[in-house]
Design a protein that fits this description.
elongated, 5 strands, single chain
Length: 139
């Protein structure tokens, strides 16, 4: 390696030797990287894992078709019942771990009071999955 000297004849001549310090630094960094990562690539734990073929157990909630006709008569899956009976059934369904979906079908000529009472009864029983069913408009 060339070091600075007090010789004036050689001071103006270009330096013909390669500076090795940066190359050695790069090589040392690469060496450290390989030393750290090499054990991670070679030391794999080989396990004989059990093989299972199971299907996903999807619990789908029941659905209740709750209807109210134009006269205000209530229907639970097509079976006519009174408001008191509907309240009892809502309470029973609200206690289940997997609550059913209530599909509310109300005649367009029914008084809003009957629909509001039904929604209030379902809410009081703890049922939160209530959907309104309607027919699409035909052109």
């Amino acid at each position: 390696m060339a070091f600075a000297s007090f010789d004036s004849k050689r001071a103006s001549a270009p330096m013909a030797e390669i500076n090795m310090v940066p190359l050695i630094d790069v090589m040392l960094v690469l060496l450290v990287i390989f030393i750290v990562t090499a054990p991670l690539l070679t030391n794999a734990v080989k396990l004989d894992l059990p093989k299972v073929s199971s299907q996903v157990n999807e619990l789908k909630p029941d659905k209740v078709e709750f209807g109210i006709d134009a006269a205000g008569q209530r229907y639970w899956n097509g079976e006519p019942l009174t408001r008191a009976e509907a309240v009892e059934r809502f309470k029973a369904e609200g206690l289940k771990a997997l609550q059913p979906e209530i599909h509310l079908r109300a005649d367009q000529n029914v008084a809003y009071r009957a629909v509001a009472e039904t929604l209030a009864d379902a809410s009081t029983a703890g049922l939160t999955r209530v959907g309104f069913v309607s027919e699409p408009e035909r052109h």
